[in-house]
Amino acid sequence: MEIRPLTPHDMDQARTLWEVCFEDLPAFLDWYFQARFQPADGLGIFLKGRLVCDLHLSPRAVKLRRQNYPAAYLIALATAPSFRRLGLAKTLLTYALRHLAARGIYFTFLLPFNTKFYTRLGWGEWADHRLYHLSPAGHRTGKADPNPKGESSWRFRQVEAAQQLTLLADIYARFFAHVDGGLTRSAQDWTCLLLDHSLYGGKTWLATDRAGTPHGYALVLPPDNGRPILRELIALDPTLKDSFLPYLAAQLAGASCPPAVPEDGAAQLTPFIPPGTQPVFLGRITRVPPMLEAGAYPPLSVEWVLEVTDPLLPENNGQYRIKVAAGKMRVTKTTGEQPAVRCSVGTLARLITGNAHPEELVAHGDLTLDHPQFLTVLTALFPPATNFINEYF
pTM (2 decimals)? Predict the structure, then answer.
C-alpha cells in the first residue's frame, strides 16, 4: 500500500473513482477536474498502482475571529466500493492532517455527509450552513414588479452572473467584512461557484437602490422537481431582505424556495435541509500549538495548563502550558501537571472559532474545568462568534 499526493498521471483514475462514488453530471466533472481539482491538492492510497481511496484538499483562505488563515477545504473523500470498511478512509484522513500541518496549514474544514462520522475523529462544528423554505407568495396572475411602487427603496433585476463577477465579489467582500468567520473568496472561488451555478441552470438577481447602486444579490437554482432553490442571498442593508425575499417568491411563481442566508434577517423563513447535506460545516485542527498561537487575544495576563485528546493524531495528545500576555498566546508541551482545562481536539476547534459559548461546552460535558471560576477567563479569551460559509466546491 502506498499513500502519496496525486500527480497529473493519476487524475484519470481520480475521475473514474469519483464517477463510481458520486452521482455527478459529466459536465460537472469536466469543469471540476479542469478548474478546481488540481493534482497537487489530492492525496490517495494506491494498491499495486490502483487508486482505491482519495480525497481532495482544496486550498482556501478562511477568516476566524476576523483574522485570515490559510486553510484547506476537504471537498470529497472517495473509496472504491470493494475496499470500503477496511479503515482506508481513516488512514488517509490521518495522513492528510499531517500533510497539511507539515505545510503550515493548521485548520481544515468540510461539509459532512454524516456529522458523527467526522466528529468522532476530531472535527468540531464551526460554521452555519443553513437553507430555508421561503414563505409562499400566494397565487399571482402576473409577474412580480421589479420596481416596487410606494415606499420601497429597492429595485431588482436579473443579470448574467458571469458578466457581473467583479460586482458580486465586491458585494460579498463588503458583507463578509462584518462576519466573524467564514470563507474569504478568491477570484478562482468565484469562477468555480459560477461555473457550478450556471451548469444547473442557475439565475442571478441584483438588488439596487433607486439610484442604481448595488446593495445585494441572490443566486437561484431550479431543481429537477421544479422547486427553485435560493442558493445564496447577500444583503448589505438588513432591511433589503424584507423586500427582496417576497419579490423572489413572487417572481418564481409563488413556489416555496430555500434560501441560504445567515441567521440574521431570516425570521420569515422555515428551515430546509436537502438530502445528503448537513446544516453545519465542521472544522479540524491539524496541530494544536501553532493554531492557538496564531490568534489575537484580549490584553489579559493569565497562565494555565490545557489537556487535549486527539483520536487521530497522537502528537496532539497531552498537556500544554498556556501563557497569555499582551494579546499573544505562547503554548509549550508539558507533562505531569494538573490541567485547569480538559477537552477533545474537536471541542478545542469549537472554542477557538467561537462556534459555541464556553459555558455551553461545560454544560454539555465537552469541556472540563478544574475550577469553575476559570470559565470567566475562557469566555474572555474565546467569546462566541458568528461563522457562516456557503460553499459546495
Answer: 0.91
